[in-house]
Amino acid sequence: MRAVPVALLTTAILAATPAIAFAGGSDDPTPYTVTAGGVTLPTGTAYVDGGHVNYRATALDGTGSQSFGTHFESLNNQPSGKYIGTSFYDFSGAAAAFPDGYCVTWVQVAEYNEHFGEGGQKPVCTPTTPPEPPTPLTPVVPGAELPTDEETPAVPGTPKGPDEVTTPPASGNDAENPTTVVPDTTPTTTVPEGAESPAGTDPVTVDGAVPVSNTVAAEKDGLAATGSNAMLIAAGAAALLAAGVGAVLVSRRAQRG
Question: How far is the C-alpha of 122 from the C-alpha of 105, rounded, in Å?
């Protein structure tokens, strides 16, 4: 009679064994998904009134570990009531504590025995602050030469300076190569007629001018020659006059005698 109850008890234990074996442990893979943004429940499930989520987070370098948690309650319009009936829970507490970024290292959800971080899961971290974009560079057109400070590109047909005048081309091939005429700005000195050039300077000849002969020296030489001849004539006249006077005196003495 006792064998029957024992057999029934053994059967009951064997029937319950599979259910116990399939119960998840804390280090088993989690049925929910954990990201740096929050916890997402499996499809078709939602957070219930009276449930909770607990988690731990650190700074991006793994320091400053802190614990956070939320108990979902619909009474008295509690802020946590907004999660009831939804399937996503955000890590707003970690975001406020670590404004420069954080890493979630452990998560526990009330409805599940599996805990994130106890089954070899690596922490999930927010992205680091992106670097500032580089300063855009001025685009360079292929084949174009940029002007430098040493030389400014000249515009065809434009004089390069106040002393240069570009003459218009006549026709034909000359139209492609205009001739630039540079006027002569060298000062010239004209010596008036009859004047002598200053000492140590050469007379300046102007193109198209008639050479002027220097007649001042010739006139001076002529005057000097004329003066010399006059003196000779005067001396000759005086000699003749003296001879005439002498002849008159001799003639008178002869007549008296």
Answer: 7
pLDDT digits (tens, 9 = 90+) for 81-132: 999 999 999 999 999 999 999 999 999 999 999 999 999 999 999 997 665 6
User: For residue range 155-202, what is the model confidence (pLDDT) as tens digits?
Assistant: 566 555 555 555 555 555 555 555 555 556 665 555 555 555 555 555
Tell me the backbone φ, ψ of residue 166, rounded to 5 degrees. -95, 120
In terms of C-beta density within 10 A (0-12 exposed, 13-18 middle, 19 or more buried), how is residue 83 classed?
A: buried
Task: Tell me the C-alpha distance between 240 and 121, whole Å.
Answer: 159
How open is the CA angle 186-192-195, to the nearest 5 degrees? 120
Radius of gyration from C-alpha coordinates of the chain: 65
Q: Which residues of 244-256 are buried (b: 16+ CB within 10 A; e: fewer)?
A: eeeeeeeeeeeee
User: How far is Cα 67 from Cα 56, in angstroms, rounded to an integer?
Assistant: 4
Q: How far is CA 62 from CA 74, 102, 115, 169, in A?
A: 35, 8, 20, 82
Lowest mean pLDDT among 45-59, 79-93, 218-232, 242-256: 218-232
Tell me how far apart the alpha carbons of residues 73 and 139 are, in angstroms, rounded to a whole number. Answer: 60
Sign of CA dihedral 90, 91, 96, 99: negative
Stated as kind and residue range, the H or E segment containing 255 is helix 216-256
